Amino acid sequence: PLEGGKLSPSVFSRAAEKAGFGSRFLRTSIDGLNSLLFPVILILGEKKACVLLSLSSETETARVFFPELGKEETEISLEELRPRTTGYAVYVWPKFRFDERTPDYAKPKDAHWFWSAIAENRGLYRDVLLASLLSNIFALAMPLFVMNIYNRVIPNRAVESLWVMAIGVGIMLTADFVLHLARGYLVDRAGVRTNIRLSSRIMEKVLGLKTEARPASVGSFANSVSGFESVRNFISSATLFTYVDLPFALFFLVIIAVISWPLAIPLIIGAVLILFHTVLVQGQMRELAESTNRASALKNATLVESLVGMETLKTQGAEGQIQVRWEKAVSFLELTNARLKLLSSSVVSGTQWVQQMVSVATMIIGVYLVISNSLNMGGLIASYMLSSRFMAPIGRVAGLLLQYYTASRSLAALDEIMKKPTERPEETSFLSRPVLRGNIEFSGVTFSYPEQERPALSNVSFRIEEGEKVAFIGRIGSGKTTVGRLLLGLYDPQEGAVFVDGTDIRQIDPSELRRNIGTVPQDAVLFFGTLRENILFGNPGATDSELLQAVRIAGVDTFVQRHPKGFDLSVGERGDRLSSGQRQAVALARAVLRNPPILLLDEPTASMDQASEERIRRNVEAYGRNKTLLLVTHRSALLSLVDRLILLDGGRV
After folding, report:
1. CA distances, 257 to each of 145, 252, 379 (Å)
2. C-beta of residue 582 within 8 angstroms of C-beta of residue 559
C-alpha cells in the first residue's frame, strides 16, 4: 500500500517480496556499507530515498540514482551526501526462482498464510515457553513450603528454618509474578504483530481477488472476512497459556504420585472423564458450528442487501418480505446458537463437577492414608494444592471447545478466500508498461460470466487505432459494458485475447493497465469522504491546478462553486448525498485527472440534463482530441464525439 502515493519504509519489504526480491533494513553509516552488496537504498531525510550505486574512496564521491531525476545517474560528493542520510539503508537482492524443470519434491513448499505469520514470532513464543517452564517450577514452592511447615517446622519448633524458607518462597513468588507479567507481555506483543500481519494479508487478498473469484453475495463474503475476529480471539493469550500449561499438568501429577501414588488415582480418573465427555460431544458441536457459520452468513447477507437497497425496498413496499427473511435467519441462528451453548455449558459444568468430586475423593483417600501412617499431614495438604494445578489446564481445555470449533470454521472460510486466484499471482512476472499509446485490439474474444450459460461476447474481433474515437451501440445486454470490463482486465476471456499496443493485457501489470485508462462506469460509485478525496482517488499526488482542470472538464465546478463547503463537501456513503448526475460528473473528473491516453466512458451522461450533457460533450471533445476514446451510450447527442460505430447484437459484432 502507498501512503500519499509514496512507498513508505514500513511496507517496503512487502513490495520487494511481491517483485521477487529479498530485503533487509539495517542501521549504518555510508562508510559502513559493504560495497560487494551494492546497489543499496539509502533512506534520506524529508521522506526521500536514493539508490547508492558505487563509492569512490579516492575521489570521495558516490554514484547515486535519485527517482526524481528519472533514469539518470548523478555523481555527488560524500561530504554533501552524508548530511542527507538518516543512518538507515536497505539491502535488496533477487530471490532464486525454480522453474518447471525442477521436480516438485525439490521445490520449497509454499508457506501457509496463517501459520507462517505465527511462525514469524517464534522467538517470542520460545521465550514464552521458557517463562512458562520456570513459572510452573516455581509453582512447587507453596506446596513444598506448606508440607515442610507441617512436617518439620511445627513438630520441631524450628522458627529459624521457618524464616529461611519464607524468605526463599517469597523470592520465588516474586520471580513467578515477574514471569507472569513477562509472559503476558510477550504473548500480547506476538499477538499484536500476528494480528496486524494477518489482517493485512486478508485485506490484500480481498482487494487483489480476480473479479470472477468474488462470491455472489457481498454480505456472506464480508461475514467470512469478519470471521478473523473469532480466530484472533482463539489465539489470544488465554488460549495459549492453556496449551502451554497443559504439559506441565503431567509434571504435577508425577510429583503427587511421588508423594503418595494412591492420591493420583482420582486425578487420573477425573481427567479421563473430562476428556471422554469432551470427545463425546465433538461431532455435535462440529455440526452446530458449521450451521451457525452458514446461518450467520445468510443473516449478514440479508442485512447488507437491505441497507444497500433501502430506498428500493421502501418504494416497492417490500419491507415485509425482507423482515420475514431476516426473522427466519435470526430464529434459526439463535436456536442453533442455543444448542451449541447448551453443549458447551454441559462440558464446562461437567468439568467443574468432576473437579469438585476429584477434590473430595483426594481428601477422603488422603485421610485414610494419614490414619494408616502412610502419609503425613503436610503431604496431604501439598498434594491437595498440586491437584488443583493438575486439573485447572484440563478444565480450561474443555471450556475452550466451543471457541475452537467456531474459530476452526472461520479459519476454514478464510482459507478458502486465501486460495482464490488473484490478479497478481506470485509466480507471474508482468511486463512494465507505465505509458501506453492507445492501440486496442480484440481478437476472437469469447466470454461468459460465471454461472452464465449464454456468452456475453462471442468471437468478437475489432481494432481501434491510437487516437481513434469509437462508440459501441446496441440493445440492452448486447455486451457493450462487457467490452470495457475485458479491456480493463477485470475479467479474462475464455477464448481469444485483448491487446493494447500489441501486447496481450494479461502480460501487463493490472495497475499499470488501468492507470492508462480513464474509466467512467455505468454506475458511478463514490466512497465516504469529501468531494476532493473522491476526485483524487487513485491520484492523491495531483496538484490543485490539475484538480481544477479536471473538475472544469467534468462539470463538477457548477455545483462545487455554489456550495459553501466547496471541495470539502461530504458525499456520504456510496455518494448518496449527491444526485446520480453529480456522481457521474465526479467519476468523469476522477477519470481525466490522471490524463490517461485511453478514455472508457460507459453511459457518462445517462443521468444528466441536456445542458450538462452538451457541456460535457464539448469539454470531452476538446480534452480527448489526441486520446483514444471508447464510448458506450444510448444518447445520440454524444455520437458526434466518435469517428465510427461498432454495433453489438447478442454478443457479436
Report:
1. 18, 9, 11
2. yes
End-to-end CA distance of the chain: 40
The amino acid sitting at 250 is L
| d(C-alpha 577, C-alpha 228), whole Å | 33
- Residues 315-334: tens digit of each pLDDT: 777 888 888 888 888 888 88
Q: With a cut of 60, say whether residue 107 has pLDDT above it.
A: no
Residue 424 φ then ψ, to 5°: -125, 75
State pLDDT tens for residues 157-170: 888 888 888 998 89
For 117-418, the fitting CATH number among 1.20.1560.10, 3.40.50.300, 3.30.70.141, 2.60.40.10 is 1.20.1560.10
* Ranges of each domain in the chain: 9-109, 117-418, 440-648
Domain 9-109 shares a fold with domain 117-418: no
Q: Which of 272, 260, 251 is nearest to 381 (CA)?
A: 260
* CB environment 480-500: b (16+ within 10 A), e (fewer): bbbbbbbbbbebbbeebbbbb
Cell of 488: 480493463
User: What pairs with residue 495 in β-bridges?
Assistant: 446
pLDDT tens digits for range 559-581: 888 888 888 888 888 888 888 88
Among 391, 366, 52, 449, residue whose Cα is nearest residue 249: 391
Q: Is 208 left (phi over 0), alpha (psi -120 to 50) or beta?
A: alpha
Question: How far does Cα 322 stand from its chain's mean position?
Answer: 31
- Averaged pLDDT, 236-261: 80
Residue 446: phi, psi to the nearest 5?
Answer: -125, 130
Nearest Cα to 651, choosing from 489, 494, 517, 514? Answer: 494
| Nearest by Cα to 630 from 496, 439, 349, 415 | 439
Domain 9-109 has CATH 3.40.50.10840: no
Nearest alpha-carbon partner for 248 in 108, 394, 42: 394
- Report angle CA 649, 651, 653 to the nearest 5 degrees: 60
Answer whether residue 499 shows pLDDT above 90: yes
Q: Measure the CA angle with vertex 147, ends 142 and 150; round to 5°.
A: 125
pLDDT at 350: 86
- Residue-wise pLDDT tens digits, 438-495: 899 999 999 998 878 788 999 989 999 998 999 998 888 888 899 999 999 988 999 9
DSSP letter string, 279-333: HHTHHHHHHHHHHHHHHHHHHHHHHHHHHHTHHHHHHHT-HHHHHHHHHHHHHHH
Residues 73 and 65: beta-carbon distance below 8 Å: yes
Q: Identify the CATH homologous superfamily for domain 440-648.
A: P-loop containing nucleotide triphosphate hydrolases (3.40.50.300)
- Residue 494 is given by DSSP the state S
Q: The C-alpha cell of 389 is what?
A: 494445578
The confidence score (pLDDT) of residue 212 equals 79
Q: Which residue has the cell 461475514?
A: 223
For residue 357, the model assigns a pLDDT of 92
